[in-house]
Q: What sequence folds into this?
């Protein structure tokens, strides 16, 4: 049996109105799902309530795409961890590359976000990954080390902490990283977690892969023992593709599909 249960997280980004998101959530609820894979859905903030209602009692977790660094107050347009908790959210993305690139958020912001989540008992899904230029310059390991520094202030990991390795060049491009690249980076990340928090926490921490995951490449990616699931954008908007990804995640790891 696998040490870590696999997890598929659907990141719906800024797509789908609340009505359309609720309809898609109901379609996912209606389909058969393998018992051995966890599923979470991250719709936009305004859709949390309706998607949450559709997921209630189904075992599919509600996730959010972001959280603000402060607890409460005069921060127009922002959403706090306590608001997300009240909405039924269990898991929250932190550090997505789209926020790093488009909003200029950096490790100190992610550290504060993870603190807020920890205060409310919400699990962070911390996203890391290098750009094409960083990979080409051989800097991937350095970049990941710097991104892990968001955890410097934590003597123990935030409860429920999960990682997503999302190479920026693979997101939304159709060019997923190869299983070998992903397996290698996940092993590197796990070693970094072990240095920080010890080997047993490293061994039980889930590391997801994200970036152009599709029904076509998922069997190869999920054949890697180091890959504990996926953080999926485009394919997560199509119910039959989600079914295919869940089936791929439920298959035993072989390591044989390395490419
Ligand atoms: P795609 O699956 O569309 O490449 O998006 C990946 C992603 O950014 C998920 O957070």
A:
């Amino acid at each position: 049996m696998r040490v870590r249960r696999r997890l598929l997280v659907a990141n719906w980004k800024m797509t789908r109105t609340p009505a359309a998101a609720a309809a898609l959530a109901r379609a996912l609820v209606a389909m058969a799902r393998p018992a051995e894979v966890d599923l979470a859905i991250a719709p936009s903030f305004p859709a949390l309530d309706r998607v949450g209602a559709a997921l209630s009692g189904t075992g599919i977790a509600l996730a959010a795409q972001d959280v603000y660094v402060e607890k409460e107050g005069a921060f127009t347009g922002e959403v706090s961890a306590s608001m997300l908790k009240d909405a039924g959210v269990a898991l929250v993305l932190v550090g997505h590359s789209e926020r790093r690139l488009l909003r200029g958020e950096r490790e100190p912001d992610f550290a504060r976000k993870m603190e807020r989540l920890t205060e409310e008992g919400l699990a962070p899904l911390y996203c890391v990954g290098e750009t094409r230029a960083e990979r080409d310059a051989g800097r991937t390991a350095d970049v990941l080390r710097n991104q892990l520094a968001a955890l410097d202030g934590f003597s123990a990991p935030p409860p429920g902490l999960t990682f997503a390795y999302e190479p920026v060049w693979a997101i939304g491009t159709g060019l997923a990283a190869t299983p070998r690249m992903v397996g290698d980076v996940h092993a590197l990340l796990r070693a970094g977690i072990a240095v920080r928090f010890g080997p047993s926490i490293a061994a039980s921490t889930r590391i997801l892969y994200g970036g152009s995951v599709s029904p076509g490449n998922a069997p190869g990616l999920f054949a890697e023992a180091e890959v504990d699931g996926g953080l999926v954008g485009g394919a997560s908007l199509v119910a039959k593709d989600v079914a295919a990804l869940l089936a791929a995640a439920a298959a035993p790891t072989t390591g044989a599909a390395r490419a």
Notes: The chain is about 40% helix and 15% strand. The radius of gyration is 17 Å. The first strand starts at residue 6 and ends at 11. The chain has one domain: 6-250.
